[in-house]
Design brief:
By secondary structure, the chain is an all-beta fold. The protein has one domain. It is 0% helix and 48% strand. Strands 1, 2, 3, 4, 5 and 6 form a 6-stranded antiparallel β-sheet that branches. The protein is elongated. The model has no long low-confidence stretch (mean pLDDT 89).
Length: 81
């Protein structure tokens, strides 16, 4: 169950940064910026979310966005504790 102010959507990675140099794969993190279409308007996320190091630009992933602020995204969780 998602927060009532969030909606899921398929986003596409358009940019990313790594915490450490890219050639350091062990203990590194990739932070991605996403683009996604909501009712015909394309949004770019204002924040980044962590994705696996194997993901690259163009990779698609189900994410959640804030209905009140559509440029704010969240990682979609598969389960709730």
């Amino acid at each position: 169950m998602l927060n009532k102010n969030r909606q899921t959507i398929i986003g596409r990675i358009v940019a990313f940064d790594t915490v450490l140099p890219e050639d350091v794969s062990f203990v590194n993190s990739k932070l991605a910026t996403f683009a996604y279409d909501i009712d015909g308007k394309v949004y770019n996320s204002e924040n980044t979310i962590q994705v696996p190091m194997t993901y690259d630009i163009g990779h698609r992933l189900e994410i959640a966005y804030d209905l009140d602020n559509p440029t704010k995204i969240y990682k979609k969780h598969l389960f709730v504790l």
